[in-house]
Amino acid sequence: MPLEDLTTLMSGLGQKLYRARQLHEALYRQRITSLSQATVLPQTLRDALAAGGYVIGLPEIVQTARSVDGTERYLIRMADGETVETVWMPDGDGGERGDGSQAAEEEEKEDALLTTGSPAAAAPYRRSTICVSSQVGCAVNCQFCLTAKLGIRRNLTPGEIAGQVSVVLNRHQVELGSSRGNPTPARINLVFMGMGEPFLNYPNFTAAVRLLTQMPIPESRMTVSTSGILPGILDFAKETVRPKLAVSLNASNDTIRESIMPITRKWNIAALLEALRTIPLRNREWITFEYVLLGGINDSLAHADELIALVKDKEKGVPCKINLIVWNSGPNMPYHEPSRAEALAFQNRIIAAGVPCYIRRPRGRDIYAACGQLKRTVETAPAPLIAIAPAEAHAS
Ligand code: SAH
Ligand code: SF4
């Protein structure tokens, strides 16, 4: 519930309005996990809330897979038993680097200074990234994506989207903001790049963004990724509280894109670019195009040239950077990942054309980090393929 709803609730209970602010603070700043922890409220009020059927709670981590690179992948269970995946990347995900924002550049300079000292001790979680899910499964059916194989089960609520972040921050005892006398608040980046298509759950996604800004995580530290849901992009262009936008382009022409992302039949690349041009980009902001490199399918230098022509087109292009993601393999999928040399050649071709281009650092390969893989592994294989430790066994 946002503050406005809490205010309505409290006035309905005949309470003073400051009670709404107190509860809001407890929910989103202190990240309490039960009504009994809302000790700022008198017992009589807590009893009244319980009697009214109000519940405070967070989703629950039911499986944890920890990578040698520090990445942790969680299977998180909602109140109705549905599960989604959430990922913790302790030193950023590489995705936010080079995004051109002032903040990122300044932080990179600070990090460079810190790493000459004792980085771990000086800044344990300086710039972690949390990757959250927006739906249980996904309806978009991209051929290279494991989440697609699950189909769509349901939308997540705003509380379930923001709750993933709370539960992971609680696990790592991360203090945001300076409300608890914390002189060096952690800088947490969020990427809406887990399971699901955020723009097919648009109202809940935007409501979650507003809750998350209360924690506080500024929207400038959030990036939402869409497969290119056109109406969502047009709505997004009008938002005042707006994360950064990443678009899964994944191909340099409609024919290839259609073969790997059937949604291209509904909205082709030209329509996508046209919609993206309606977004009023802020100073030093640009669109990120994600491009999953699928060996032999979209990764040749000719494809790189076609991609360059597309984004640099004076009339149809958009200011952008390109994030290359080497395909994370999954079972029974007719793709292979390109070699390191092939990925580098693709990247260099794009950089040589003057378009910023990064290869996303692969995270958690050893824990089968491809989107949707943990859920599938847990749900379909009785003998786990991966070392799964209970959440509480981990000591950071
Ligand atoms: N539904 C949204 C956000 C979640 S997917 C979207 O598609 O943009 C986040 C990113 O992961 C997308 O860019 C998608 O193309 C990429 N992706 C999906 N499966 C992958 C895989 N097996 N290996 C590498 N990247 C993958
Ligand atoms: Fe859905 Fe994104 Fe996977 Fe496509 S890549 S199926 S949109 S989660």
Kindly list the characteristics that best describe this protein.
eleven-stranded mixed sheet, binds iron/sulfur cluster
Tell me the layout of helices and strands.
Elements: H1 3-12, H2 18-28, H3 43-51, E1 60-66, E2 72-77, E3 83-89, H4 102-115, H5 119-122, E4 127-131, E5 135-137, H6 146-150, E6 152-155, H7 158-171, E7 187-192, H8 202-213, E8 222-226, H9 230-236, E9 244-248, H10 254-260, H11 269-276, E10 287-293, H12 301-312, E11 320-326, H13 340-352, E12 357-359, H14 373-380, E13 388-389
Parallel strand pairs: 4-7, 7-8, 8-9, 9-10, 10-11, 11-12
Antiparallel strand pairs: 1-2, 1-13, 2-3, 3-4, 5-6
Helix pairs in contact: 1-2, 7-8, 12-13
The structure holds S-adenosyl-L-homocysteine (SAH) and iron/sulfur cluster.
Counted beta strands: 13
Low confidence ranges: 98-102, 117-124, 381-396
- Sketch the topology as an H/E string, one letter per element: HHHEEEHHEEHEHEHEHEHHEHEHEHE
Rg calc? 21 Å
Beta-strand share of residues: 15-25%
Number of helices: 14
Give the spatial strand order of the biggest sheet.
12-11-10-9-8-7-4-3-2-1-13
The shape, in one word, is elongated
Q: Could you characterize the architecture of this molecule?
A:
This protein has 396 residues and is of the alpha/beta class. 34% of the residues lie in helices and 17% in strands. It contains 14 helices and 13 strands. The chain has helices at residues 3-12, 18-28, 43-51, 102-115, 119-122, 146-150, 158-171, 202-213, 230-236, 254-260, 269-276, 301-312, 340-352, 373-380, and strands spanning 60-66, 72-77, 83-89, 127-131, 135-137, 152-155, 187-192, 222-226, 244-248, 287-293, 320-326, 357-359, 388-389. The strands form two sheets. The chain has an eleven-stranded mixed sheet, covered by helices on one side. A hairpin with a 5-residue loop joins strand 2 and strand 3 (83-89). Helix 1 (3-12) packs across helix 2 (18-28). The model is unreliable at 98-102, 117-124 and 381-396 (pLDDT under 50). Iron/sulfur cluster binds at residues 138, 140-142, 145, 147-148, 196-197, 227, 248.
